Protein 1
Amino acid sequence: MFWWGTATAAYQIEGATTEDGRGASVWDVFSHEPGRTRNGQTGDVACDHYHRWPEDVALMRGLGVNAYRFSIAWPRVLPEGSGRVNAAGLDFYDRLVDALLAAGVQPVPTLFHWDLPQALEERGGWLNREVSELFAAYAATVAARLADRVPMWITLNEPFVHMAYGYAMGVHAPGRALLTDALPAAHHQLLGHGLAVRALRAAGARQVALTNNCTPVWPASESEADVRAAEAYDILHNRLFNDPVLLGKYPDLSAYTSALDFVRDGDLDTIAAPLDALGINYYNPTRIAAPTGDGLPFDDAGVTGYPTTAFGWPVVPDGLRELLTGLKARYGAALPPILITENGCSQEDVPGPDGTIDDTARIDYLDGHIAAMRQAMAEGVDVRGYFVWSLLDNFEWAEGYDQRFGLVHVDFATQRRTPKRSYHWYARFLEGQNTDT
Ligand code: FCB
């Protein structure tokens, strides 16, 4: 069965951040600090999905997707990050899973989509190796409850973005700006992933994956300096998170760090635990030039000459084909089947006078990327699923509510949901798919 779905994440949609015993996450704290997010917006209410989930499941049933990737909020299940389990938190996801299955939608939960319990941040967050073990214990707790009904688990979402934005540059929670000293946060996430794979399987999980954000890297010119910088970027963005998982070793990081003294014997064997799928989130390629002296070994030169989304991200559907065939060329038989766990675009999406939202650019974006994925499949890449980011307009992290990625428009003042034209387009597209092949 090919999975056609949509994707969301807990902090971006749930709201109800202080209800039913949920503990605080790093995103609650960060988004409440002045100047961290656009207009000081937070996920306190978001899409109020915690209360409106039956309506959201009905929207998925109407859409005709056969899978849904959502995330589980660690602090809802374990308010202090470890130890005491909050039964109401587990009950929420238990009900959601049952409702999805009843609607013919396979639940694909992600265990960590950036909302670390604040209690663990106070112990050093992902810079503290102990958090890797606590993550595996949390995974075991959730799986003990849900593994009988969940066909596919995803451990982490985009450990690169969490390390780079959260720990290296400080533009996402927990807001640390450590530059290359953020590398332990990469290793401990990967170690947490490996330990969680083991814990999930021990608890009866059927299939397990990891989601990485990957990008084709284009040198800004043929100059040696630009080509070398592009290699550095490829190492830090793509290979740092794929090589250890798929090959059991880190790429050569000697140019960026003096010692990998946080890597202990046996860690790489744990991290390289076999996977049933690799999740890939693709948005755009990256064009890289020689460093400018700001402390990073590369400079983002920007992709020019393509249409852009509301975020300013270049729209390059063929980049998805390039990425997938490149992964196959690089990893060969070590590459598991692929799930496109996120792909989509933000647009301005203002309702017209009759209330309809005519998001033709999103339809073109999705249509082009699905075609590029199919081209990669025709070139021999084993892709098993595609999830649109996102079902709903939601809290886009530091960008707040301005960047709308949904197939469904959300009026955040009233919480009214209005399917956009792209929702109807995707529904018609799905009617024409044979999901058994
Ligand atoms: C990805 C995130 C997701 C969403 C999209 C636009 O990096 O995983 O939560 O913000 O970008």
Note: The pocket of beta-D-fucopyranose is lined by residues 9, 12, 157-158, 161, 213, 281, 342, 389, 396-397, 405 (CB under 6 Å).
Protein 2
Amino acid sequence: MALIVQKFGGTSVGSVERIEMVAEKVKKFRENGDDIVVVVSAMSGETNRLIALAKQISDQPVPRELDVMVSTGEQVTIALLAMALIKRGVPAVSYTGNQVRILTDSAHTKARILQIDDQKLRADLKAGRVVVVAGFQGVDEHGNITTLGRGGSDTTGVALAAALKADECQIYTDVDGVYTTDPRVVPKARRLEKITFEEMLEMASLGSKVLQIRSVEFAGKYNVPLRVLHSFQEGPGTLITIDEEESMEQPIISGIAFNRDEAKLTIRGVPDNPGVAFKILGPISAANIEVDMIVQNISHDNTTDFTFTVHRNDYLNAMQVLQNTAREIGAREVIGDTDIAKVSIVGVGMRSHAGVASRMFEALAKESINIQMISTSEIKVSVVIEEKYLELAVRALHTAFELDAPARQVE
Ligand code: ADP
Ligand code: ASP
Ligand code: MG
């Protein structure tokens, strides 16, 4: 008999019919004798709807109150799923994050889980009940409701699996596993049998939203066996593993991630003195704006250009800060661009292969796609390009690195 934590995402609980289907599925697992803890998201679109409501009141809603509100989405689905289970003769009980006591820090809208009280859950499981827990939410030490950031139900699932030492954490969603790239963008994308935590972490942080980054971090740290599966189709899904098997078939690149969430800022004609990078980025970080890629050009006539990217939500803020800096340090001008996208190739195979980056650049050159910025780490190469070429770039790279599925194997 196994203890399994199953997380069902928004589309999987997007209607009453689907919730009934999830209940049927959970019932089958129960009949096999497994203990089940289910984590659910809000019905698809609900979290967005709630956020939009708040924005009708204020552009920047008070984070504490926003959390009180958006956490209701999950409260609806846990109750509906518990009802659907009970209707089927499966004893079940639902809990909000607060009721379980999923203790988090107080960083509203992006809280981190600190501790989970597993007593109630264990007692329910022992009494033969399926426990249904609201994803995406917790409570801080003062009793305030918190939420874990978009996609946070994945993290609730993995954290519960870690706390309960579950045999597996299964993330059920609307695709049948982790693919070489987003199958909605590249129909020739292939499902991966396995992917390492390290690669999955890179993919998630570079834009593949199939798993929330923190859920992968958690799973790696606590060694939680993690699998991504389709909610309503049978299949092995994708296992996220620790081991980096040295197999002959190990491809150089495991996947391609991309994101359209960044914007680029350039400050030109900066007097090139020691400390200039700090003078430019210090005020940005003081304004609580995270910087991703950074490029500083070689200087001409003792002035240089300095470019970096930030989240698009921070663009206007960053622009203001940078304009102030430009005045202070006597830089020539500040320019910005929001129509950019970042494309990254990821793979542990890069460690043992040379020439991966140049192969990437060659593939982009063949499509006449101009590269604006480059950054590399041990297992990834990222480039910033014009947003309108994003899909073309991803497809070209998918082919160049031999990731395409054999013809006719779409879906
Ligand atoms: P859920 O609501 O179940 O949490 P998400 O929408 O958060 O589902 O995540 C699933 C989606 O992630 C898929 O529909 C797919 O479009 C997208 N996705 C992005 N990159 C990948 C990838 N490499 N493999 C699989 N899905 C991906
Ligand atoms: N409902 C939340 C969101 O839409 C959390 C989740 O689905 O994981 O981001
Ligand atoms: Mg998700």
Note: The mean pLDDT is 95.
Protein 3
Amino acid sequence: MKIYKFGGASMKDADGVRNIPKIIQNIKEPLVVVVSAMGKTTNAMEMITHAYLKNDRVTLKNKLIEVKNFHSKIIKELFGNENGSESFLEQFEHLEVKLDKKPSLHYDFEYDRIVSFGELMSSAIINDFFYQENLKFNLVDIRTVLKTDDIYRDANVNWELTVELMQKTFNFDISNIYLTQGFLGGTLTNLSTTLGREGSDYSAAILGFALNATDVTIWKDVPGVMNADPRWYSDAQKIDQLSYNEAIELSYYGAQVIHPKTLKPLQNKSIPLYVKSFLNPEQSGTIISSSKSKKFDVPIFVIKQNQVFVTISPKDYSFIPEDKLIEIITIFKKYRIKINQMQNSALHFSACFDKNRHTDELFEFLKSDFFVRYNENAELITIRNYNPSAIEQMTKDKIILNSQVTRKMAMFVLVV
Ligand code: ADP
Ligand code: ASP
Ligand code: MG
């Protein structure tokens, strides 16, 4: 069986949705179709959550209208009238009912309850569209089978239970095609969780692992994994073949095209991952598998934006021995900071990380024992297969806050 995942960019308009049945119609094997929220809906849902928790009714109302209009336009094109998808209207009503109630004090819990409607609304529309197209399929609410702990916004999968429930639920003797949502999970008590932003690639991999898929394909708005993000580098070239390890490194350092958690479950069962263009489905895309990466001589560039770069040193001018390092890393973990690059010396520890809601609290905490200096809006540039001209190209006229060069990789933290 196969897993196909369609992301926000593949479903940003009615043409994108119409494309899905076209892509899946020739598949004879059993198939699970995983969908994420349409277009940039998750960003809008984040704003709705924020307004809801701040009791900012005006922003809440305006954003909600925006979300409804965006989906209604797609529905009108697909079904001929904007009330053409009953399943969508039902989900939207649930959302409105939720937003009329008083929120709890738990931000991340409320976030997952509200933001999950992005995927619930998109799968509702796809469900009704598949019916209209006479496709035979079953819809599964992923929250009933992808079981997680209650670390809201960054939930961890309960693998044993998830595998058991998925194998029971996705029964290909009953249906050859299943439709389900990416990004979402459910706790043991059936509360909604999410797997972290852009997590629906990971959902596809979890399904692939649990159902022993022959392969997993993530359909994207690019021809495959390229040697740089084509949005900023117009000469970007497609990489035909990558090893799991190489792809893990690229996604870990911020190549947005694959969520970093996606590859490990697939690697553990040697399930190949295809990254393909939903605009040109017949093209080969990139295959990621246990084979060694094909020799690819051009440098590969990865840029991670919105980085914070912090340097701390103990106020008592003591060294930073191993036990102090453990203490520092534990503090970062407590504030759910994911460190992308770090460096230490006798008196200093530096780290580059994604800004999150807890960054200011982290700094406040650190300030009691350390001198703290930091830059926001930094960029982390990673170059694999680097050469002098690639380094020159990326760092020319830029202020370098930190650099690390290994045999395979050159990394720079730059002031933007
Ligand atoms: P999805 O529709 O699944 O959410 P994403 O938007 O998360 O897809 O990922 C696709 C985007 O990733 C592309 O539009 C591209 O701009 C960006 N991207 C970043 N790095 C790369 C890379 N190395 N190769 C291909 N695309 C990349
Ligand atoms: N819709 C979610 C997000 O935008 C998950 C995903 O698209 O992968 O983060
Ligand atoms: Mg995405």
Note: DSSP finds 13 helices and 16 strands in the chain.
Protein 4
Amino acid sequence: MSTNGVQQTTDMQVNELYIQAIEDILSKTLMNIDRFETRFPHASIDEKYILNDNDDWTNGFWSGILWLCYEYSQDERYLKAAEGTVASFRQRLDQQFNLDHHDIGFLYSLSAKAQWIITGDESARELALAAADVLMKRWRNTNDGSGYIQAWGAKDNEHEAGRIIIDCLLNLPLLYWASEQTGDPKYREAAEIQAERTRRYLVRGDDSSYHTFFFDVQTGIPIGGATHQGYNNGSTWTRGQAWGVYGFALSYRYTGNAAFLETSKRMARYFLEHLPEDSVAYWDFNAPPADDTYRDSSASAIVAAGLVEIISHLDAADPDRLYFEEMLAISMQSLINNYATIGDDAAEGFLKHGSYHVLGGFSPDDYTIWGDYYYLEALMRLAKGIPGYWYGRK
Ligand code: GLY
């Protein structure tokens, strides 16, 4: 197609690019199955994934990658490896090993729930429901008749007891889904209150966001925002904004509450309007931009997957949809052309230049398993309509 003499990329060419990127990931993942054995990749140092036992918040992403590869290819090698990860998650739940935090949805949506979605395995469904019960233990009642999901630490931890975190939005789909499955509204009610509390207090008036926010433990009265991985308390940590974009869109899917979709769209606009020239985000929107300022490709990958979710809720002729579609195509092409390891057959990761915790000094410019997961999820959604595992299939 040619417009005013300018060669346009056709939809078919774009789809071919996505398929090429997926095929590259499939072969890397086969090699990674052999390299990682029973361990779980987290983020990298010197281009090698740090491999851990199943003991961190990031372990579900490897499982999710394996399930996506299996759904796409139907190749039993991915299935076998994916089932192996779910067995490990079963053991982790049985032993209650390192589950005393809000990240249970990241872990069990992409492992046990994914297995149930794809294979219909009843024991996997039960495992995911048991995980939802574990997440509900983070619920703290406040004496105004409301409550919240405590991010980290024990209930009596003086510093952490009143803290919520924007990342938790991605853990709420496990709760919404548990209500759908069991008919018990308690999970959905908690999730909706948490999403609304996050919308009111972590999203600022200009659609930027705090990473975390503290409340009075007894009364639920708001105290103030604070960062954990961002540049400073008043800054907007890019990945936190990305969790908001995708997370609110998912809360809209489950609840139909239009305020959640509106918030997701506004946060997406903020994100897209604050990108540098190559359309992939710096690690914090307030980090002074310089030649050596780190990017966070994982934040852009999360937003890409989130934009696909937003777009799925908008009419074809909606001008917002046209804007988001255009920005999504630009972001994906930049990720593929400038950040992906396509063609580097020995690479373990799929996306370079992700950052975990810049000021903490942890993997500030590396592969991240969540960046790899969301990049693959976005590709799968765009090229094949495989939507990932945040919600069940009709
Ligand atoms: N949920 C932790 C992170 O995004 O680094």
Note: Residues 57, 167, 229, 239, 356 surround glycine (CB under 6 Å).
